[in-house]
Design goal:
The structure is a single chain. Helix content is about 65%, strand content about 5%. The protein is an alpha/beta fold. It has a six-stranded mixed sheet, with helices on both faces. A five-stranded mixed sheet has the order 3-2-1-4-7, sandwiched between helices. It has a three-stranded antiparallel sheet with strand order 11-12-13. Helix 5 runs parallel beside helix 7, helix 17 packs antiparallel against helix 18 and helix 18 packs antiparallel against helix 19. Pfam families: CHAT, TPR_10.
Length: about 1200
C-alpha cells in the first residue's frame, strides 16, 4: 500500500472488527428468527464496513463487498425485493473487479454472483442475466482447485445455469454442455453425501430436456435411471421428494408418447399420484402437479378410451387452472392443457360447448405467450377441428396461420417438428377439399411428406402422420388418376394400421382410412377383393368404437357407402339393405346442427333411390329419396359443395320422375344460390374458375327445366344468375353507387373502398411455392386471410345497405322484368340455351313485357359438340389452332396468321366449315328469324338498315360461329348477313347494364391508341401489323381523330401500354395473342417487351373506355371447361370497361387483317351518306355495322365461298353494345 494507501489506525481496526462481529451476529440471528430487522441490521453494518475500507483502500474491501452482497441476496430470498437482488449483483460485480488477495474470497464472490444472476433471470427472464450467471460460474470453477469439496456444487450450479438458458433459447449446445458438467458433479460427489440425490435428479432433468429436443431414446432412458437412483438414495422425508416423483413421472410420460408402451404410462401415473399425495394443499407446486397428472390421465384415455380417465383429466386440469394466479409464468401451459382435455371430450362426445371452451382457453394461452410454438400448434389443431364442424373458412385460415407460426418458431431438429409439420399439412388438405386450390394440395403433400421423413421410425405417432400423408396423396390421385399415387396411399395406410396397437384410440380410424382407400382402388380397377376387404376393415373399425363416440358417424357413413358400392357391383340386395341401415343409424345419431348432416342425407338419398328402382310401383320410396336430397340441399349448415351435389341429385330425380313446377323452382333456386356460395369473393378469380369447372352445366339444366315448364322468364333469370359468375362479381364491385352516395356518403365511400380492395385481392394469382421459405409462405397465407376478412366485411356491408329503405335489391341479380326494361331501343337479344334434353331460344325485344320462347327441337347438345369437334379438327388441319413457331421465309411471310403458323393448304369444295355453318342456319338461326318475322334484305340499301341481334349462346354453342350461319355456295345460298347485323354478349345483364348506364362520349375527349407488335419474342413475324397500324394512323390524321401510335420497339415496359389504354377511349392491338386453357387468366397479348395478360386487364376499370379492336388471334375463343364463363380476352376487355370489342374466334390471316381494319375504321370515320369526314372525335356506336361492312368487303375480295375463304372471314366477331 506504499505510496497509494493510508495506514489503517488501530481505532479503525477496532471499528471494523466490531462491525464485522455485529454484522455476523445479526446474520446468525436472522438465520434463526427470519426477522427482517436482523438481516437489515447486518446489511447496514457491512455497508459501513465497505464505506470505511473503501476510504483507506483496505485489502479486505473484497471480503466486505462479498459478505454485503451475500447478505443482500439473503434479504431478497426472504422478502422477495428485486431491488435487494439488484444491489447484491452490483456490489458483487464491484468485488469481482478488485485484485484478488485470496482465492477463497474471490471464488465466494464469483459463486454468489452466479447464484444472483441466475435467480434474477428466473424472476425477469432476461437472457443476459443467465449468460452472466454462466460466465461467473465458469470463472469460479476455473479458480476452484481440484479436490476442493465445493467443486461438485459449483459444477452442478453451472449445469443448472446452462440448462436454464437451453430452456429459454432451445440452443442444444447449452444442454449438451450442462450434462457433462452435471455428470462430473455427480462423479465427484461421494456416496452418502446428502447432496448426491439432488445432483442425480438435476442430471436426470438435463437428459430429459435434451430428449424433448432430439427425441433420442438413450436420453430419456438415462433420465429415468438417474432420477430413480436419486429416489432410492433420498430419505422418505426429503423436502424435494414430491418434485422428484413428479419429474420421473414426466419422464415416463415422455417415453410413453414416444413409444406408446402402456406400462410406461402406468408408471407415470403412479409416480405422479405419489407426488400429489406428498404435496400439501397450500403448496405452490400443487397446481403444476395437478396439471401434470391431468395430462397423464388424458394420454391414457387417448390410448384406452376409458371415459373415467378423461373425466379425471378435466377435473385435475380445471383445478390446476383455478389455483394458478394471473401473471404466473405457468398459467399459459395450464390453460392450454385444460383446452386439450376439453377438446378431447368434444371429439369423444361431440359437445360443441367443450370445443368452444377449449379454443377460448387455448387463445388465452397464446395471448399470454404469443411466441410459444406448442401453444400455437395446439390452438391451430382446435381451430381446424372447429372448421370440420362449422365449415367456417375463417377458422381454417386462423388454424393455418397458427400452425405455420408454430412450425416457424420450433427449433430445427426438435422432437415436436414431425407432429407440427403433419398438422400443418392436414390443415392445407382441409382447405384444398373446400377450395380445390392446387397450391393447397401441393403444400399438404410437402408438409406431410417432410413430417414422415424426419419422424423417428419407432415414434408412437408415426401411424397418424402416415395416414395424413396418405390422405393428401389420395386427393392428388382423385385429380390426376395417377395409379402410382393410390398404390402409395394404400401402402402408407397398411403400415399405419400395422404400427398401431388394436386397443389404441386411433386404431378404428386408421382401419377406416385403409378401407376407404381400398374402395377407391376398387372404383378405379374394379377388383371386388378390394371392396370386400374394405367392407371388412370398416366393419371392424365400427366394432372397435363405442356407439356413443363422436367419431362413430363417419364410420357409419363410410360403411353405408361401402355396401352401396358393393350393391352397385353385385346387385346383392342385402348390401343395399345394410347400406340403408347404416345410413339411417348415422342419421339418427347426427345432431341437426352437425355440418356433416347434408353429406349423410345425400348418401341416404342415393341408397333409397336405388331401392326405389327395385320397387318401381312404390312411389313412397322414390318420394323418400327426393325428401332426403331436398333436406340436404336446403340445410343451413355444411359445405356448400355437398349441398349443391344434393340439389343436383334432387333436380335430376324431379326431371325424370316428377317435374312439378313448385319443386323445380325450389330446387334450382337453391342450386343457383349454392353456386354463388361456392365461388364467393373470399377466393381469387383463378380459384373461382377452378370451382366452376365441375358445375358448368347446372344453369343450363335449370333453364332447360324452366323452358320445359313454359317458364322462359325463370330460365332467363337462372342463366343470368348462374353464368359468367366471375364477370358478374367484378361488375358488382364496380357498380356506380350514385343513389347510395346521395343517401349516405360515408357508407358509399366504405362500399367503394372495400370494393377496390376486394378487386385487387381477387385478381392475385396462385403462386408456386416450390423453393419458398416458410416466412414467405406465411406472408402469402396472411394475404389470403386478409382476403377472406375483406369478403366477410363486404357481405356485412352489403347487408347493411340492403337494410336501408329503398335499397333492398342492392347488387342483387336483376329479375326478368328489369332486364326487359333496359334493352337496346331496337334489335333483339337472343339467348340460346342448350342442354342434354333440349335446346331453346329466348328472345328479348324492347317494348315486349315478356320473353319470347322459341323451342329449337332439331338442335341438341350432341350436335353442338359434334360441330365443335368437326370445326376444331378443320382448324387444326389448316394449322389455325397451332401455336408453334416456324422459320418464316419471304415466300410465305405475307400469308402468316396471327395464331402463330400460316395456313398452307387450300381445300377445294365443301368441308366441315360449310357443314357447321349450314347446320347452325337450318336448325337455329333460320327458325329464330322466322319466329321473329325478320325478313331478308333483298335491296342494295346500306347495311345500317339491317336490324341488330345480340347473340348470347350457352354451353358448347359459345364456341360456334352463329354470327356466320348460312348456306354458302349452293343455289339457295343465304346467310345471316342477309337478315341482320350480329353481335355477341356474354350475358343479357352485361348488355342491359351498358344501356342503363349509357352516356354519350365527349368527342373532344376521344382518342385511339394504336400499337403493332410484328416481332414478339418466340413468335412468327406478322409484318402486316405495321402496315395495318400505319394505315389506320394516317386515316385518323386525315379525319381529325386524336391518335397515338406505338410500335413494339418504341416502348420499354407493359405499364406504358396500360397508361395509354387508360388515357384513350379506344385501342387497336395488332399482335399475337395466346389462350391459356390451364389458367384462363394467363391468356394474353404478346408484345415485344413482355405480355399483357387477362388477369392484369380485368384489374383495370377503364371508365372512359369505348372500343377495343383486337386484331389478334383467338381473342374470343374461351375455355372448354368454362364455356359459360366467357373466359377470353374479348370478355376481359368488356369487364375492364370497354363498351364494344372486335375480336376473333381463331387465327386470322396477316394478308387480310390490315384491310379489314382499314375498312372498319373508314366506315366509322366517314359519313355513310355523303362521304364527308366526321369532325373531330368518334365513338364506336356503329362498330357492329362497321365490322359487318368490313367483312362484306373481305368476302367480295375473296370472291368465293370456298372452305379457305370462309375460314378467312368467319373468325371476326363483335361483342358489346
Amino acid at each position: 500500500m506504499e505510496g497509494h494507501s493510508q495506514v489503517i489506525s488501530d481505532d479503525l481496526k477496532d471499528v471494523l472488527t466490531r462491525l464485522a462481529k455485529d454484522g455476523q451476529a445479526c446474520r446468525s440471528r436472522f438465520m434463526d428468527t427470519r426477522a427482517v430487522t436482523d438481516i437489515e441490521q447486518a446489511i447496514e453494518a457491512f455497508r459501513r464496513g465497505v464505506q470505511l475500507t473503501s476510504e483507506v483502500e483496505d485489502p479486505y474491501l473484497q471480503w466486505w463487498l462479498g459478505i454485503l452482497a451475500d447478505s443482500l441476496y439473503m434479504l431478497f430470498e426472504h422478502a422477495g425485493r428485486l431491488s435487494s437482488l439488484d444491489e447484491a449483483i452490483s456490489v458483487g460485480m464491484r468485488a469481482a473487479q478488485l485484485p484478488s488477495h485470496s482465492d477463497e474470497t474471490m471464488t465466494s464472490v464469483l459463486n454468489n454472483l452466479q447464484y444472483s444472476f441466475n435467480l434474477r433471470f428466473q424472476r425477469t427472464g432476461n437472457l443476459s442475466d443467465v449468460s452472466e450467471s454462466i460466465l461467473y460460474a465458469q470463472r469460479c470453477i476455473q479458480r476452484t482447485p481440484v479436490g476442493d469439496r465445493r467443486l461438485p456444487t459449483r459444477l452442478h450450479n453451472l449445469g443448472l445455469a446452462l440448462l436454464s438458458r437451453f430452456e429459454a433459447t432451445g440452443d442444444l449446445t447449452d444442454v449438451s454442455e450442462a450434462i457433462p458438467s452435471m455428470l462430473k458433479a455427480v462423479d465427484l460427489t461421494p456416496e452418502g453425501d446428502p447432496e448426491l440425490p439432488n445432483r442425480l435428479h438435476s442430471l436426470g432433468g438435463s437428459f430429459r430436456a435434451r430428449f424433448g429436443h432430439t427425441g433420442d431414446l438413450k436420453d430419456i432412458d438415462e433420465s429415468i435411471a438417474k432420477v430413480r437412483k436419486a429416489l432410492e438414495l433420498a430419505p422418505q422425508d426429503h423436502a424435494d421428494l414430491p418434485t422428484w416423483l413428479d419429474n420421473i413421472g414426466q419422464s415416463f410420460h415422455l417415453r410413453f408418447k414416444r413409444l406408446g408402451n402402456l406400462p410406461d404410462l402406468t408408471e407415470c401415473i403412479s409416480y405422479k399420484q405419489r407426488a400429489l399425495e406428498h404435496t400439501p394443499d397450500t403448496h405452490a407446486d400443487l397446481p403444476g402437479r395437478l396439471n401434470n397428472l391431468g395430462m397423464s390421465f388424458l394420454s391414457r384415455f387417448q390410448h384406452t378410451s376409458d371415459l373415467s380417465d378423461l373425466s379425471e383429466a378435466i377435473s385435475l386440469e380445471e383445478k390446476s387452472v383455478r389455483l394458478t394466479p394471473e401473471g404466473h409464468p405457468k398459467l399459459p401451459i395450464r390453460l392450454n392443457n385444460l383446452g386439450m382435455a376439453l377438446q378431447t371430450r368434444f371429439e369423444r362426445t361431440g359437445g360443441l360447448s367443450d370445443l368452444s371452451e377449449a379454443i377460448s382457453f387455448k387463445q388465452r394461452a397464446v395471448h399470454l405467450a404469443p411466441k410459444d410454438y406448442m401453444f400455437l400448434n395446439s390452438l391451430g389443431l382446435a381451430l381446424m377441428i372447429r372448421f370440420q364442424r362449422s365449415a367456417n373458412l375463417a377458422d381454417l385460415a386462423e388454424a393455418i396461420s397458427s400452425l405455420q407460426n408454430a412450425v416457424h418458431l420450433t427449433p430445427e431438429g426438435h422432437s415436436d417438428v414431425p407432429a407440427q409439420l403433419s398438422n400443418l399439412g392436414s390443415a392445407y388438405h382441409f382447405r384444398f377439399e373446400r377450395t380445390s386450390s392446387p397450391t393447397d394440395l401441393a403444400e399438404a403433400i410437402v408438409f406431410c411428406q417432410k413430417a414422415v421423413e424426419v419422424a423417428p421410425k419407432d415414434h408412437a405417432s408415426l401411424p397418424v402422420w402416415l395416414s395424413n400423408l396418405a390422405g393428401s396423396l389420395e386427393s392428388r390421385f382423385e385429380r390426376t388418376d395417377n395409379f402410382a399415387d393410390l398404390t402409395e396411399v394404400i401402402s402408407y395406410q397398411r403400415r399405419a394400421v400395422q404400427l398401431t396397437p388394436e386397443n389404441h384410440t386411433h386404431y378404428p380410424t386408421l382401419l377406416n382410412h385403409l378401407g376407404r382407400s381400398l374402395r377407391r382402388r376398387f372404383n378405379f380397377a374394379g377388383s371386388l377383393a378390394d371392396l370386400d376387404e374394405a367392407v371388412s376393415l370398416c366393419s371392424s373399425a365400427l366394432e372397435k368404437m363405442p356407439l356413443d363416440h363422436g367419431g362413430i358417424l363417419l364410420k357409419l357413413k363410410t360403411l353405408a357407402t361401402m355396401h352401396m358400392a358393393r350393391f352397385d357391383h353385385t346387385r346383392n340386395m342385402p348390401d343395399l339393405a345394410q347400406a340403408i341401415g347404416f345410413a339411417y343409424l348415422a342419421l339418427k345419431k347426427t345432431p341437426e346442427t352437425h355440418p356433416g348432416l347434408p353429406s349423410l342425407l345425400c348418401i341416404l338419398g342415393k341408397c333409397v333411390y336405388k331401392l326405389s328402382m327395385q320397387h318401381p310401383t312404390n312411389p313412397a320410396i322414390l318420394g323418400a329419396a327426393m325428401s332426403h336430397f331436398k333436406a340436404a340441399a336446403t340445410a343451413t349448415l355444411g359445405p356448400p359443395r355437398t349441398r349443391l351435389d344434393a340439389a343436383v341429385n334432387w333436380a335430376r330425380l324431379l326431371h325424370l320422375h316428377s317435374p312439378v313446377l313448385d319443386d323445380v323452382l325450389m330446387v334450382f333456386d337453391t342450386a343457383i344460390e349454392l353456386v354463388a356460395l361456392i365461388t364467393g369473393l373470399d377466393q381469387t378469380v383463378q380459384l373461382r374458375y377452378v370451382q366452376l369447372q365441375d358445375i358448368a352445366g347446372l344453369p343450363l339444366m335449370a333453364a332447360s327445366a324452366a323452358c320445359a315448364l313454359n317458364r322462359p322468364e325463370k330460365a332467363l333469370e337462372w342463366l343470368e344468375q348462374g353464368r359468367c359468375l366471375v364477370w358478374s362479381q367484378l361488375t358488382n364491385l364496380r357498380t356506380p353507387i350514385d343513389e347510395l352516395q346521395a343517401h349516405d356518403s360515408d357508407l358509399a365511400q366504405r362500399v367503394t373502398e372495400l370494393s377496390l380492395r376486394l378487386q385487387s385481392a381477387g385478381s392475385t394469382r396462385e403462386k408456386s411455392r416450390i423453393g419458398m421459405s416458410l416466412p414467405e409462405k406465411i406472408s402469402l397465407d396472411d394475404e389470403a386471410r386478409s382476403h377472406l376478412s375483406l369478403a366477410l366485411q363486404w357481405d356485412d356491408l352489403v347487408a347493411t345497405v340492403r337494410d336501408i329503405s329503398g335499397f333492398g335489391d342492392f347488387l342483387k341479380p336483376s329479375p326478368c322484368s328489369t332486364l326487359l326494361s333496359h334493352l337496346p331501343d331496337s334489335g333483339y337479344v337472343i339467348v340460346i340455351n342448350i342442354e342434354d334434353r333440349r335446346c331453346d331460344a329466348i328472345a328479348l325485344h324492347a317494348g315486349c313485357d315478356k320473353p319470347i320462347h322459341i323451342p329449337l327441337p332439331n338442335f341438341s347438345s350432341a350436335k353442338a359438340n359434334q360441330y365443335r369437334s368437326d370445326l376444331t379438327n378443320e382448324l387444326r388441319s389448316q394449322q389455325l389452332r397451332d401455336r408453334g413457331t416456324v422459320e418464316v421465309t419471304d415466300s410465305v411471310a405475307d400469308n402468316l396468321d396471327r395464331g402463330i403458323r400460316p395456313a398452307y393448304r387450300v381445300r377445294q369444295g365443301k368441308g366441315a366449315t360449310h357443314n357447321v355453318l349450314g347446320g347452325l342456319w337450318i336448325d337455329i338461326v333460320k327458325p329464330i328469324l322466322n319466329e321473329l318475322n325478320i325478313s331478308k334484305n333483298n335491296c342494295s340499301s346500306p347495311a345500317t338498315i339491317l336490324p341488330r341481334i345480340w347473340w348470347c349462346p350457352t354451353g358448347p354453342l359459345s364456341f360456334l360461329p352463329i354470327h356466320a350461319a348460312g348456306l354458302y355456295g349452293t343455289e339457295e345460298s343465304e346467310s345471316i348477313h342477309d337478315y341482320t347485323v350480329s353481335s355477341y354478349t356474354p350475358t343479357v345483364t352485361a348488355l342491359t347494364d351498358r344501356v342503363r348506364k349509357s352516356h354519350s362520349i365527349d368527342k373532344s375527349e376521344t382518342g385511339l391508341f394504336l400499337t403493332s407488335q410484328p416481332n414478339a419474342p418466340g413468335t412468327s413475324p406478322i409484318v402486316g401489323t405495321k402496315q395495318e397500324v400505319r394505315s389506320i394512323h394516317d386515316m385518323a390524321i386525315k379525319y381529325g381523330v386524336k391518335v397515338v401510335e406505338l410500335e413494339g420497339d418504341a416502348v420499354d415496359n407493359i405499364d406504358t401500354y396500360i397508361r395509354y389504354m387508360e388515357s384513350c377511349t379506344s385501342v387497336h392491338l395488332a399482335c399475337h395473342a395466346s389462350q391459356n386453357s390451364a389458367d384462363p387468366l394467363e391468356s394474353r397479348f404478346l408484345f415485344h417487351n413482355g405480355t399483357l395478360d387477362l388477369g392484369t386487364i380485368i384489374q383495370k376499370n377503364l371508365k372512359n373506355a369505348d372500343l377495343a379492336f383486337l386484331s389478334a388471334c383467338q381473342t374470343s375463343t374461351g375455355e372448354e371447361k368454362l364455356s359459360d364463363e366467357a373466359v377470353h380476352l374479348a370478355a376481359g376487355m368488356l369487364s375492364a370497361g370497354y363498351r364494344r370489342v372486335v375480336a376473333t374466334m381463331w387465327s386470322i390471316g396477316d394478308r387480310h387483317a390490315p384491310q379489314v381494319a382499314t375498312d372498319f375504321y373508314q366506315y366509322l370515320w366517314k359519313d355513310s351518306e355523303d362521304g364527308v369526314p366526321r369532325s373531330g372525335g368518334f365513338d364506336g356506336t356503329n362498330s357492329a355495322y362497321a365490322l359487318h361492312h368490313a367483312i362484306q368487303e373481305l368476302r367480295l375480295r375473296l370472291g368465293s365461298n370456298s372452305e379457305q375463304a370462309l375460314l378467312a372471314w368467319v373468325p371476326y366477331v363483335h361483342f358489346g353494345y
